[in-house]
């Protein structure tokens, strides 16, 4: 049962916590699509008892209400509201895939509250100077992002909604359909992870063979974020990020996130 949280504009957000109530607070940002319940591997909290994990459904996902016209930067306000609801003043942030930009927004806009930030297989801004944004990206993602941009600039305002609504209905009837649709475009390093029965009920880090969030995005971000520590892993694809979370937690401890 999630905790209802009121954002500063009155919207309802639904949040969750796991782990040690006295541990280091870490706010996890789910991917796109996704929800709060997909942010943790089974048993992770028990294996890392020094952490207190928080997560919430971003607007329009899970049980949280939509926020029409929202921007990535708005995640800082929502994250602050969630932390306040749990009585947390300072915390670390971890964002995976589509959650990566939201974690960076918190680090940039909540400098007095965010102790450390980590991004797994994140994405650069769509207007990132000097970056061929779609280079190396799977056709599936190119199509989806293209529909999103066509919606934003008015070329096809209803196309994205029609596409997502149809896919959501199909996945709701058969949740395995999501992985079946993606399987044809997975790298050979992602396929064994998706086929692992432990993973099929969990949303799944940034490898050099990632075609969903190409490694060029992380290289672009690393060149523009002071003090960034890029970790580029060979023979790993998009979904291998899920297994990287224990290493990220150790890194957060090393950054003094809990002090």
What is the compact description of this entry?
The chain is of the alpha/beta class. Helices cover 33% and strands 14% of the residues. It has a 6-stranded mixed β-sheet.
Sum up the overall morphology in one term.
globular
What would you call the structural class? alpha/beta
Average pLDDT confidence is 85
- Tell me the fraction of residues in β-strands, as a range: 5-15%
State the oligomer: single chain
The tally of beta strands, per DSSP, is: 6
State the end-to-end distance. Answer: 30 Å
Q: How helical, in percent, are the residues?
A: 25-40%
Name of the CATH superfamily of the domain at 3-132 and 204-254: Alpha/Beta hydrolase fold, catalytic domain
Low-confidence stretches: 197-201
Instruction: Examine the coordinates and then state which fold CATH places here, giving the name of the CATH topology of the domain at 3-132 and 204-254.
Output: Rossmann fold
Helix and strand run: EEEHEHEHEHHHHHH
Largest sheet: 6 strands, mixed
Architecture of the domain at 3-132 and 204-254, according to CATH? 3-Layer(aba) Sandwich
CATH class descriptor name of the domain at 3-132 and 204-254: Alpha Beta
Report on this model:
- The structure is a single chain.
- With 259 residues, the chain is an alpha/beta fold.
- It has a domain at 3-132 and 204-254: Rossmann fold (3-Layer(aba) Sandwich).
- The protein contains nine helices and six strands, in the order βββαβαβαβαααααα.
- A six-stranded mixed β-sheet has the order 1-2-4-3-5-6.
- β5 (91-96), α3 (100-109) and β6 form a beta-alpha-beta unit.
- It is globular.
